[in-house]
UniProtKB/TrEMBL annotation:
InterPro entries given in the database record: AHL15-29, PPC_dom
Keyword Chloroplast found: no
Primary residence: nucleus
UniProt keywords, alphabetically: DNA-binding, Transcription, Transcription regulation
Organism this protein belongs to: Genlisea aurea
Superkingdom to which the source organism belongs: Eukaryota
Keyword Metal-binding set for record: no
Upper taxonomic lineage: Eukaryota, Viridiplantae, Streptophyta, Embryophyta, Tracheophyta
Subcellular location: Nucleus
UniProt xrefs under Pfam families: PCC
Protein name, per record: PPC domain-containing protein
CDD domains: DUF296 (cd11378)
GO biological process, alphabetically ordered: vegetative to reproductive phase transition of meristem
One of the record's GO cellular component terms: nucleus
Stored Gene3D superfamilies: Hypothetical protein, similar to alpha- acetolactate decarboxylase, domain 2
Amino acid sequence: NAPSDVTRRPRGRPAGSKNKPKPPIVITRDGGTALRSHVMEIAGGCDIRECLTTFATRRQRGVCILSANGTVTNVTLHQSTPPGPVVTLDGRFEILSLSGSFLPPPAPPAASGLTIYLAASQGQVVGGIVAGPLLAYGPVVIMAASFGNAAYERLPLDESEAPPLPPQPPPTRAEIETHTLLTDPFQNMVNSCPLPGENFWGALNRPPF
């Protein structure tokens, strides 16, 4: 009888057995300290400063104003550092620039405020620190970012305060081997003694089987 053929398995992985790609990890919730972007639309007739203060207080998040577009009316400004002269502007003004920040309590009041630059109908440009209600004449759109857990720092820092240590890089392989030799003398002694090779065992007279 002819010997039966032996079926050999092909080498390598079978078709279709490759590692399947893992699904991506999607973060559906931000941390409490994450920076969020906001597009805020304030209706006409509302006080812009009061709306931003209420938003920061109710959400318990700091708000940083980046820019704004729209028209305001009857603006009261400090044109120098308070308590400088206060100027009240009647009429409508186009917002050229709006910046500032609002922090919820118990942050100090000095941490909140607005600075605005306006263009009048005749092309005059005026600006300063908002010192009173800032009424939106029509819809005003504000681009802002909010944040949580802002750290309050007093500068300059105390000279006695030690600076934080810089992060140390991970040890190299050579440093790990050197540390092992210095801390384990027995291992060092064993590594320094040559072990007999296979020829040594072949030189022995083995008894016949």
